[in-house]
Amino acid sequence: MQLILRGISHRYGGTNVLEDISFAVGDGEIVCIVGPSGCGKSTLLRIAGGLERPDAGEVLVAGTAPDGSLNPLTYIFQDFALLPWRTVAGNVSLVLEDHGIEAKKRRAIIDDVLSRTNLSDFSHALPRQLSGGMKQRVAIARALAVKPAIMLMDEPLSALDSQTRELLMDDLVALWQRERFSACYVTHNLAEAVRLGRRIVVLSRRPGRIREVVEIDMPLTERPGRLVELEKLQRRVWEIMREEAREADREISDVT
Amino acid sequence: MQLILRGISHRYGGTNVLEDISFAVGDGEIVCIVGPSGCGKSTLLRIAGGLERPDAGEVLVAGTAPDGSLNPLTYIFQDFALLPWRTVAGNVSLVLEDHGIEAKKRRAIIDDVLSRTNLSDFSHALPRQLSGGMKQRVAIARALAVKPAIMLMDEPLSALDSQTRELLMDDLVALWQRERFSACYVTHNLAEAVRLGRRIVVLSRRPGRIREVVEIDMPLTERPGRLVELEKLQRRVWEIMREEAREADREISDVT
Amino acid sequence: ADKINVGIIPSLTSHSPSIIAEAKGYFADQDLEVEFVSFQSAQPMAVAIASGDVDFGMTAISGGLISLADKGVIKVIGGALQETPEIEGQKILVSKAAHDAGVTSPADLKGRSFGITTTGSSFHYMAHKIADGEGFARSEIHLRPLQKVPAVIAALKSGQIDAWSIVPNIAGSLTAGGDVVEIGKVSDYIDDYQVTTIFTSTANTQEKPDLVKRFLGGLSKGMDDYNAALVDKTMGEDETAEIVAAIHEYIYADQPLDKAAPRISTGAMRMSPNAALNLASVEDQLEWFKSEGLVPEGVSMEKLVDASFVETY
Amino acid sequence: MSHEAAAEGRERAEEDVAAREAARPVPFRGGGFTHRRLGPVAPIVFLAIIALWEVGSRTGAISPVALPAPSEALGALADLVATGMLWKHVGASLYRLSLGWALGSLLGISVGLMIGLFSLARAGLLPLVSALFPIPKIALLPLFIIWFGIGEGSKVATILFGTFFPTVIATYGGVDNVDRNLIRMGQSFGLSWLSIVRKIIIPGAMPAILSGFRISASIAIVLLVAAEMIGAETGIGAYILMAGALFALDQLIAGVALLSTLGLAIAWLIGRTERALLAWRA
Amino acid sequence: MSHEAAAEGRERAEEDVAAREAARPVPFRGGGFTHRRLGPVAPIVFLAIIALWEVGSRTGAISPVALPAPSEALGALADLVATGMLWKHVGASLYRLSLGWALGSLLGISVGLMIGLFSLARAGLLPLVSALFPIPKIALLPLFIIWFGIGEGSKVATILFGTFFPTVIATYGGVDNVDRNLIRMGQSFGLSWLSIVRKIIIPGAMPAILSGFRISASIAIVLLVAAEMIGAETGIGAYILMAGALFALDQLIAGVALLSTLGLAIAWLIGRTERALLAWRA
Ligand SMILES: Nc1ncnc2c1ncn2[C@@H]1O[C@H](COP(=O)(O)OP(=O)(O)OP(=O)(O)O)[C@@H](O)[C@H]1O
Ligand SMILES: Nc1ncnc2c1ncn2[C@@H]1O[C@H](COP(=O)(O)OP(=O)(O)OP(=O)(O)O)[C@@H](O)[C@H]1O
Ligand SMILES: [Mg+2]
Ligand SMILES: [Mg+2]
After folding, report:
1. Which comes out higher in pLDDT, residue E5 or A72?
2. Which residue's CA lies nearest to atom 8 of ligand 2?
3. The listed CATH number (3.40.50.1950, 3.40.640.10, 3.80.10.10, 1.10.3720.10) that belongs to domain D68-277
């Protein structure tokens, strides 16, 4: 499935948050979004997921979701959004219950995603008994459970140690290999961005505009072997962001 | 000020979370703690800060706090813990109000820490109007406001983009240069760990034990120029964690 | 002047005499300064007298009153409303539905429901007296405690209870509406019924007998005026209107005078002259309370009544 | 630069659409569960109900014994205004109400906070509250007279007792619901116990306390009638009792309408307070 | 390996201490603001109060007109048991209570949810609730008789009305306080509206609803007396009213004690429910 954003602009009260953002996520493409804190990445993702209405512009999907996809456009929230009164398994179960899946199959799905996120031991724990990283993994498990066609991920690995992050990223890549979902991946980790992204959309400081789009024409599977090339790309993205910051600084010193 | 942990063990209900952890944070030292998700890093930090009583062991401080330190042992929470009913400035003000600082001086402190965390424009915003990274910066600003002698930081930069993280890390280093506070820094970013840590305590998987302590005898100021050496150290820590994970995997496959 | 508090119930015209006495200066003549205190029912008034917040009150003899007298805190000192043959007394009423179903005389009340305010109220007493008089068991008249007079009226009007007995002015306005039919008189079953009495705290009777006497003196004059103006109608029209206006200061005060005046003046029952007390009737009532187990066995007339202030018969 | 990029992005988007099957907009899923302020719905509802009622009364569908027409009640109200008694009644009631409610709320919040904060208070006081709350004030009227006299004391006390208990329960329920993480944060910054209570627990419990105020204020108004049973000559409750005693339904309804209006006014005030104090919620 | 490391760490720690000035333990700051379950504090409190009261009555410090001794009330209670009337009274009251409370709560939760969920319901119904809640049920007794008769109907209706309004307010207050982020999450996963309400909003509002139950249950018990004012021969309320009319204070207190016990029992039940349903809170 494809996701197309056209001329998205948005403001909260007096502040312009997004300005004329247009890009598309092709079938089975992962597009990474990077940009300074507070530039509107989460807002953009919320708009893309139909959770917020943009002031201008439109979001479209094209293509059909693969069989068995329960929620084509699925979100992983930056603040996890776990129900505090449900156990880990219950939180995953929540998103399956509306689809008339028989209990046994549902349990199988839950067991599967929990073991993939290394949470099997904690399926009966409540959110308040989990560490930060474990909460994030529950959020990921929940998203995986509905077999999304397009994933909207808001810094899904930020609270994880490098070890676990590596593991889950491998898992994500493997999953992508199998299911070829499309994804919009917000991250502030440039290494992650070049590791996963078919394209990297670099946003400018608030108001968020598209500063540049970096294309990476390298199959995901080949990337672990071609780290040096990736490193160069990462540095390029880093340079763009740096430049942006410098420009912004200039602006500020102009004003003051 | 120094912080000394001696033989800390802790369990929640049936699960052993920490086992016999002992280390010390010397005067003006930054000790980084790394370890897999859920291994007990946050728990250890809560115990170190006197917020939780360990089942065994003790936490000691030695030395005197420098002048003007309002809260010698200060915490930056992984989940930010902002009061939703106070503005950004109000959240910072909260921790100053108990110390009988006159209003003008208080405002000056608030303005200072907010500008250092790039939040001046948002001093009147409520937490719900902030992005994830901005919330984290408020939590940092709040901690800076009390001029801590020992900082207990639980993944303080995890929700920030690399750009902002770099900036705040520089700020932290500069601050440390000036004030020489001691710190216990939990992170899952090994680059951060080798950049800031005088020592890196690597914890094992749950139950968290000290797996190894890596010493880095290099002044903080020199580190940006000696990236290659740091890279090597980082790889070493990475190897330790990998080995730990492999061992754990072996254990698991032994059991199943 | 001595300050005294007098309890009144602003929905009952039977409290008029003290108001008249105050308006006409009869209390002032006795060197009394009167303050009226309103109550919604007799029970709290009795309690307030027991607690010393109020000095004098008027009420039917109820279980609560006897119970307080048994505790030695209040005493009945005189009579007020008195049924007399020549003046219309309390009526026995039935709902239209019950009347249509054949309840046309008090004898038919057997097996019917009868509204009362509370257990041990005067309505309870009258119901049993009717049963006694008609010769059927007291338990064959089904009592329905409804707490308040308006609640009984509502239940009677809507046919949810069959029968009730009440003073003539209320009975008159009910039968006028057509929902309710009169089937008899209470005086046929109770001789010389002492409907209400005047009472005060035991402390007053013992420590300030003079004050009690002066109050009764003033009140008797008010009662005489009331009888003259509204019962015997021997008073001049102007003076009567004046008295009605004075009463209206406290009774039915929330209605305009032209609406309230007829309600005040019609169906007034006689006040016992000089507040004389019918001991026989009081004793009959006390015996009935005892026989129903509503008050302790040990209550005697001496505990209930202090007969030293007024004539008794 | 950024403009170029945007233009490029847009071109690609168009291409994509043209090349493949027709694109459809992402359905908006984020709606609902928030509150828009609608226009004058409430007045319309009230007017409609009153109009229906009037029509019912006029046509005889509603028997005058069951309920008088609103116009009659209005007449009684007009009488009240004309005789100038309205202000006397309302004034007397408002005085008792505000005093009783303020004292009851103050005490209730204090005790509620104690129950919410101290295990000992919870163990000792909560059962006491549960045991005393269900005691009907009307049943105790005779005792109230003896305890508090027949002056303003017993009236204020009745309202005080009525508002005290629900406030206690709402307050401690709110305290229990405050996020424990925020309290830990306060402790970690060495905030004094009092500061934590004042700046973290009370604001956190505020939604529940205000919700409790809505309940306790209504109960206070209900209890006006019970309070004014004893020795009251003025007051809306006394007026209603009087009307009830005379079965003057028009006055009864007029008095009840006054209480309703009072209730609406207080609810409006609490609503304003909520909007002011709870603006931090979404 | 890890053992060595630990040992090493400990050594260093000892060194540090030895080398510099004396170390002192970090003060524990995380205490308080949670609830320990204490022993039998409540029974002790109750017994102490009753003992004091008994002593006060015996010594004459408390006048028998103001309050009878607990032993007398106990005597009245014993009479009730002996005559077998206790179960008749309690049974009749419990029936009215459970029916009225269950219906009132059910309706109240439904309307409260509607007000919490729909802007239109909020605009239209909330003012209506604010206007009707403060109407005193006792004042309307005569009308209740005409509307609902003098049978069980009017009794159940009185309790129903009394519990309905506080439940509405507690429920919608709870709905307002549910974290909007969780609702957005539910929407993003395409949960049906009903699922969101059932699985996110109702559990989120549950603390407030249960707190409301504590209030509404107590109010229901209070209203027993008002309900049984109308033509009731059995029931705790009727018993209390009769005792009040006869100024039989021992019976009055015995009846009130029965209501208190009922209140305690219901509070205990709600406490259990809370512990079961709200175990997810810290
Ligand atoms: N209140 C609690 N009750 C029960 N178990 C808890 C509680 N808090 C933490 N735990 C358990 O303790 C373990 C350690 O948690 P902790 O938060 O210290 O991990 P962490 O190392 O900080 O992980 P992360 O890097 O993911 O934040 C976890 O397995 C968690 O499930
Ligand atoms: N509900 C809201 N009301 C007002 N302003 C808001 C609201 N939500 C977000 N904002 C503002 O919009 C801007 C963008 O927020 P957003 O959460 O999209 O940033 P972000 O790019 O995701 O940042 P981060 O990387 O820190 O998560 C911020 O300046 C924030 O203050
Ligand atoms: Mg964000
Ligand atoms: Mg943690």
Report:
1. A72
2. B129
3. 1.10.3720.10
